[in-house]
TrEMBL record:
Name used for this protein in its record: Three-Cys-motif partner protein TcmP
The species this protein was found in: Novosphingobium barchaimii LL02
InterPro entries to which the protein is assigned, alphabetical: Tcm_partner
Amino acid sequence: MERASGLPAIKSSGLSVALAPEHYTGREQALVKHHFLKHYLERLIHKIASKYGEVVYVDGFSGPWKNQSEQFEDTSFGIALQALTDAKRSWAGIAHNPRQVKMTAHLVEKSPHAYARLAELQAMFPEVEIHTHKGDFTEIAPAIARCIPSQAFSFILIDPKGFSLDLQALKPLIGRPRCEVVFNFMFDFVNRFALFEDDKVAPVLDKLIPTEDWRNQLRALEQNPAATPEMRKRAIVEAFECAVSKVAGYKYVADVDVKRPDRDRTLYFLVYGTRQPPGIEVFRDCQIKSLGVQADIIGRKKVEKLAEKSSQLELLGSMQEMAPDPNAVFLIDEMEKARHLLLDIVPTSGTGRAWGDIWTHVLANHVIRLTELNRIANDLRKSGHLLFPSWPPSPKRVPKDEFPVLLGTVTPSVSEPVP
């Protein structure tokens, strides 16, 4: 994703304004995923259409599965097709210098029954050129890559039902220069079978995570009495993220931890790859919004579970409201870690390091909005912890990307709180 100025307002056609929670009963984790995709794709496609003449959406495992909406509003491809339609209309409707942007979608599905339903889509989204493909995504991906014009921008969603996926086979598609990708990394399955030496399971995981020594790292963790489940979880997902970065050449790879709706336990990760700094900026914005949705779902499920054992539902709801918000605690912790990383990577001498290089590194490693990191940087500048030699003596609160940064003369304390 690249920054663009003078964008027209996003105009929704009215078919899909907000996700309907009632469509997600029994699969609330999909609401978290779709909340992220909806907000990210709306911003991505609208901005990308300002520069590219064609935007291509690819869904490798489209379904539909368990959708409740006849308009497919509760499916990933339905959300994407609506975003493509809205962006096309917004740019075409500009009074001065309207843009005609071609919107294309490639939907792949192996199940004959699910694939047959995709035939309904072209009439529903006539402003998007929709291509459907019946078969195995890893086999079809290279052909789709050849169909995409070199100057087009593509967004690829890879959301398999399990973990059988050959990452190297997808390289022609996910390795395109003008491309972003989101994987559904089925952590619950991978975690369960990670160290299986079965001849049928191990080769499948080797194709999913073609990274050397990731199993040895897990075995070392198992032998470490100080290791925690969180350390094991991060080791597994980071091995996959490293493989995505290596195979496809993405500079920034990050993830959204999607938990089971009835407990605080990871079900899967949405793993995101981009080569553009604004991409990681918008990713974190949309991630934090989705984590709020997830926290509400988990909190409500806890109350409902307790209510099954008690008739005092109203009291339980009040207790839930008073309890500490784990999501808020997580975000505060991430903000503190981001602050410390910021201070760690700023040079102490020389000409400094460009702010644009610093903030992208911090956002790639921690869940924090750029607006919050800018605020922290400004406060650290005022306190003398950071030096911005090019920052003019003005009330400006946001550093420019080209501003060089140096560590200040005030020594930061390890226990010092976020300014």
